Amino acid sequence: MTYCNPILSGFYPDPSICRVGEDFYLTTSTFAYFPGIPVFHSRDLAHWEQIGSVIDRPGQLDFDYAGVSRGLFAPTIRYHDGHFYVICTLVDKGGNFIVTAEDPAGPWSDPIWLNTPGIDPSLFFDPLDDSVWYIGTNPEPKGKAYQGECEIYVAELDLSSLTLKGDAHGILRGALRNGIWTEGPHIYRIGEWLYLVHAEGGTSINHAVCVARSKDITGPWIGSPNNPILTHRHLGKNASIINVGHADLFDDPDGNWHMVLLASRPFTDARVCPLGRETFLVPITWENEWPFVASKNGLVAWEYPALQREAPSFLNEPSCDFFQDSLPKHWLTLRQPKRPEDSAWKIHNGCLRLFTVAAGMNGAAHPAFAGRRVRHRDWTFTANMEWTPKAGESAGLVVIQNEMFQYRLEMYQIDGKGFVRIVRGVDTVITSVAWEGGGVLAVRSINLSLSFFYGKDRYSLKRLSDYIDGTILSVEHAGGFVGNVVGIFASGNGKDIDNYMDVLWAEYTGG
Question: Is 183 a catalytic residue?
Fold first, then answer.
C-alpha cells in the first residue's frame, strides 16, 4: 500500500502533526475561514479523516473584519500527558494563544492568550527533564538589517498556568547568510541531540526546510552542512511541485521518521497554483545524525510506501452534500460573529439557509456564504436552491480567491424581472440574461477555463458563458496565502433585507 502526494489536496497549508500510539493527528492553517484549524486523523498515513476543528463555535475567537489571508496562521499540535495542545497566531487581532483538549475531535478550550511577539509559535515537551518550551519567530529584535530578517527564540513555559517564565533566548537567525523569513520552527529531542526544523526563504518559490541541532535548548545551535535539507527552489516555477517548505517531523510506531510539509502544484502554461498550498508527506532517513529526505534525488515524490495497517472504515469527502443537521465538516464559512444568533446562515428543515444580510463577498464582515475547498485542477460544482429575490439582493454561486479576485454567478431582479449574470471581482459584469431565478446553478473548470450554467434542474442546464479565465484566481495574480473555495452566497448588497435563500443540496466532483 502506498500514499499519494498531496495527502491533503487543496487549501491545507502549514501542516503540523503529532502521534499518540498508533494514531496520527494533523492540523493546518485556515486564515479567515471558519471553522478554524481542522483536525485530521490517520493510522496508515494514506487515509485521512477530518474529525473536527479547533475553532468551531462563535465567541471562541473574534476574527471578523480580517482579510481572507489574515486570521489564523500556522498552528502547531502536540500531545502531552493525556492532553492535546494547539498553539497558533491570530494575526492583527490578538497574537499568540494556546487551546487544549482531552479529545482531538473536541471540544477545545477557549484561547489562553500569550504576551509573546511574532508568529508561528510551537511547543516542545522535553522528555529529558519534563520542561516545556515555547518556540517563536520574531523580527530581528535589534533592528532588521534587511526586509525579512527574523530570529527564532525560546522561552520556558509554565504548563499549569500556560504562561511564560524566565527570559526569552534568541537561538537562530537563519541557516543561510541573509536568509529571509526564518519561521515555522519546531524542536524535537532525538537521541542525544535537540533538533530545530524551520522554514526559510518565504512561503513561495524560494521556500525551503532547514535544520540545526544542539545539546542545549538555548544553544549554541549548529546548522546542518546540507541545508536546506529540502527545497525545490533550484527547479524554478516549471517544476511539477513548487513552494516546498514549512515542515514538521514525526516518527511512526515502527520507528521510521517522516515529515509533513506544504507545497503547491502549478497548472497549465501559466504555471499558477489556484489550489494554494497543500499538505505533502515524505519519509526521512538519518545519516551522521542528520535528517535527509528519503528519495533518490532529495526531492518530494508523488508516491511513497504507507504504513501497513488495516484499511479505515470511513469514506472520503462525499461528492454531494445535504444539509440535514449541521454544516459538513469539510465546509467553510467566512469569519464568524461573536453570537450564534448573529450568524448570516443556519441549517433549517434540511436546507442551508442563507440570509440576505448587508455583507457581501467583497467586504471583511461576516457574509452569508458557505463553501468547500477546490481540490482538483478540473472540477464541477452544482447547487440546487430555492429563492424569490427582492430588489437590491443577489445570490448564487461564487468561486473565491479573496475579496477582490472572485467570480460570482448571481441571480437578481430589477423592476420585478429576474436575471442571472456573471460578475468578476467587485462589480465587473461579464454577461447577463433574463431568468426568473431559483433552480440549479453550476460552474465547471477545465484546465483553468471556467464555464457557468443555469436552469430549473440539473438536467436542463443552459450555458451562460464559457472560456472565462480562471488563472486569475491564484496567489500568483491575487497574492495572499489561500487557495480557491467554491460555494453559495446571498447578499443584500449593503442593506439587511428580510429574505433568505435555501440550498437543498450541493455537489462537487473533481478529476
Answer: yes
